[in-house]
Task: structure prediction
Amino acid sequence: METINKISWEIRNDIGIITLVNPPENYLVQPEFVPIETLKKWTSYDYLKGIMICGAGKHFSGGGKLENLFKMIGDKEPISETMGKGKAVLEHLENLDIPVVAAIQGICFGGGLEIALASHIRVCSENALFAFPEINQGIIPGLGGTVRCPAKTGFPKAIKFIMSGDMINAEDAMEMRLVDFIVSKQKVFDFSFTFLQKLTRDRPLPVINAVMKALKNARSLSPEEAMKEETRMFCELALAEAKRRNGSSES
Amino acid sequence: MNIPGYSTILLQIDEGIGRLELNTPPSNTMTMKFFTEFSSVLEFISNSQEFKALVITGHGRHYSSGADVPVLLKEILEKTKTDEHGRLTVVPDFLSNNYRSLLMLESFSIPVISAIRGVCLGSALELALFSHFRLCGEDAVFGLPEASFNLVPGLGGIYKLACISGEALALERVLKGSTFTAEDALKYKIIDKIVPKKALMPTAFNFAREVMQDFRVEKRGLYIKKYFS
Result:
C-alpha cells in the first residue's frame, strides 16, 4: 500500500483501490487531492481492470475545507490554476479506459461528490448523504460538479440541488440518477468490489477498453463521430477475433 | 399494399403507415443482404411522400437475433484494409453504411416505432434504440451479447444506450453481455411501454396513427406521457 496526501492506493487482484484517508470526514487536503503524476503512475499498470474509490471509516468525503481554499487565495499560485489541477485529476479518472466505481457511505459533499460524479458507477449505502454546500459560502462547485451533475440528472434537478445547497438522502439521489445502486451500509465496499470484478473478470482488456472509450466518446463527441469511432473499434476487435477463430492470429 | 423488391424485408404501406418487417426466419438474423436492403428501403421511404409513420417489427415470433456474426467476421477479415502489422487502417464501407443507416432512420421526420416480440439482441437492439419509440410484448428478451464473444456493439449501441439509460447502465449491460427482460428494459427506459403480446401490433399502429399527426422528435416524452401513462 502507498499513501500520499492522505490518499492510499492498493491493488487487490486486478482492481485498484483508492482510499481517502483523512477521517472522520475525509476532507480533501487540496483540489488536486492526489498529485496527477502519482495518479497516472498508479493507474498505468496494464493488468488493472477496474478502480474503486472509497473513504476510510464511516464517510466517503466531506469535500474540501472551504476555509483552506479561501486561505489559498492570494498564494503565489492563482486559484484558477489550483482548481485546474484538481479538475485535471478528475478528468484523468473519468477518461480512464477501465471502469471506476465510487463506493459511497455516509457523507459525500462538495469535492467528494465531484469525485463520485467523475466515476463511471456510483454505489451508495442507505445512509449516504449528498450535497453541494458551496452555495452557502457564496461559491459554486469548482471541480466540474456544475457540468457533471446536470449531465446525470438533467438541468431542472441539478439547478435546484446546486442552488439550494440542500442535503439529500440515498433514495432522493437514486431518484434523480445521481447514484446507480443503493446497498446496505455493511455491503458498500464488498458490493462495489465484487460488482467490478464480476463485470470485468471474463472480459479481455481490449474489450473493456473499447467499451470505456465508446462511453467517453458518447460524452465528448457528436453522435456521428461517436458512432463512427464505435464502428471502428468494433472492426478492430472483429478483425482480431476473426484471425483468432481462423487460427492465424498474429502478434 | 405490398411493396415488392426485397428478399429479407417485407415492406407494406397502409393509410400512410409503413410496416417494415425483418424477414429472414426463423429469428430474422441481420445478414449482409439484410443490411444492404435495409439501407435501400430507408432511401426509398425517405424519398417517398406516402409514408407518414413507420412501424418496424420482425416477421414471426421474433424481432431479430441480431447480426450473422460468423459471416460478418469473415467479411471483415476479407475486406478490411490493414497495414503491414495487420492493424486496421480503413473500416470497410459495408460496416460504415450500417451505422449511417441507423443515423438516417433516427433523422426521419416521420415517427419510427419498433414493435418488439421475442428476441431483440445485438444489432437488432441497436436498430430498436435508434427508433423514436419502442414498444414490446411481455415475453420480449433483450441483450447486447457482443462482449461475450470478444466484440463490442458496433452500430452506436454503446453510445445510444448511454444516452438513454445512463453511462453506468450501458457499461454494465455491455460488459455483462447477458440478456434481460421486458420489465428490466422498461426500468432502463429502453422500452416505452410493455403491451400484451397479442395487442402489440394494433397498439403500435394506433399509436403511429396518433403521433403522425404532429410528430416532432423533441416531443417524444409528451407523446409517451399522453398515450402510455
About this structure: Residues 2-228 of chain B form a domain with the 2-enoyl-CoA Hydratase; Chain A, domain 1 fold (CATH 3.90.226.10).
